[in-house]
Design a protein that fits this description.
Helix content is 48%, strand content 10%. The chain is of the alpha+beta class and 270 residues long. It has a 5-stranded antiparallel β-sheet with strand order 1-5-4-3-2. A hairpin with a 2-residue loop joins β4 and β5. α4 packs across α13 and α12 crosses α13. The longest helix has 15 residues. The protein is globular.
Length: 270
DNA sequence: CACCAGGTATACG
DNA sequence: CGTATACATGGT
């Protein structure tokens, strides 16, 4: 059992479009798969959560995954206090965490994501895991997202046969660059934001939006605020055509996520 | 059955 | 430089 006192909603986080390998199992229980880790977590009471993993595994992996060393409440309350659509979105999205996921998994997942709706992305990622991923020990039927090695030698034709469409050559290029070291995902942990984004965009199929998603969800760069169709719509409708997120520095990615969630889920006129 | 989906590469001007 | 268009496949 762990206590989580900060803003923390499993429901909203799972439904916030940043991770595609997490699932609501029942009213209070959720399952997350990330790299070679599986977690089931159940809300037993407000702030009280039961875990399927050891305390060590929680501390060494999942606490960082849920970004629990950062306080979201002050960020969210400050946004609410400023009002406007950003404030409403922050109130509505309270509890969303920015998940710190595996960089390689984010690279391929967000290459796959382009021009797909979220259910289709989930399906594509599951297919990748089902065909090329290792089975998760103790979790019948579940497979981890494939490693670079597991995808070595997979051809464009094979990706197309999996339903990956025109993204197939992008996947081949991404895997190839990671395997031969042209793209060193670990080393980029230490890079500044601009260097990271530029390095990621060398991969075919990785443009500015996907690069920002990888930076935010794979590297925990809260300065990154990916602009997709939903965020662009918010900018057009509520922010006078200006990208307001960039000015928020270390809170930009979090506020972006509130707005993304609000655009998709918050009842509003127009 | 149209239309769109957490975009990007490429070809233009 | 900025803008238009094709792109594979599945959801709504």
């Amino acid at each position: 059992m762990v206590t989580i006192a900060d803003d923390f909603s499993l429901e909203k986080t799972v439904d916030s479009g940043q991770a595609f390998r997490c699932e609501k199992l029942d009213d209070k229980t959720y399952r997350f798969i990330s790299a070679a880790h599986v977690l089931e977590i159940e809300e037993r009471a407000p702030t009280q959560y039961a875990l399927s993993v050891t305390s060590d595994e929680w501390v060494s992996y999942w606490a960082d995954y849920f970004d629990l060393n950062r306080q979201y409440r002050p960020i969210r309350e400050k946004a609410q206090a400023e009002g406007g659509f950003l404030g409403e979105a922050a109130r509505f999205g309270a509890g969303i965490r920015i998940l710190r996921q595996d960089p390689f998994e984010m690279l391929l997942t967000f290459i796959l994501s382009q021009r797909k709706n979220i259910p289709a992305i989930i399906q594509s990622v599951r297919r990748m895991a089902d065909v090329y991923g290792e089975p998760a020990p103790g979790a019948p039927g579940l497979r981890f997202f494939p490693t670079p090695k597991a995808l070595a030698g997979v051809t464009e034709a094979e990706y197309r046969a999996l339903g990956m469409g025109y993204r197939a050559p992008y996947l081949v290029d991404a895997v190839s660059r990671v395997l031969d070291g042209r793209l060193n995902l670990s080393k980029l942990q230490d890079a500044d934001d601009a260097t990271l984004i530029t390095a990621l965009m060398q991969v075919k199929g990785v443009g500015i939006k996907v690069a920002n998603c990888i930076a935010l969800y794979g590297y925990g760069r809260m300065t990154a605020a990916p602009v997709d169709v939903w965020i662009q719509r918010a900018i057009d409708q509520y922010f006078d055509g200006k990208n307001v997120f960039l000015q928020f520095g270390e809170s930009a990615g979090i506020l972006q996520q509130y707005v993304f969630y609000a655009m998709r889920r918050m009842p509003r006129e127009e």
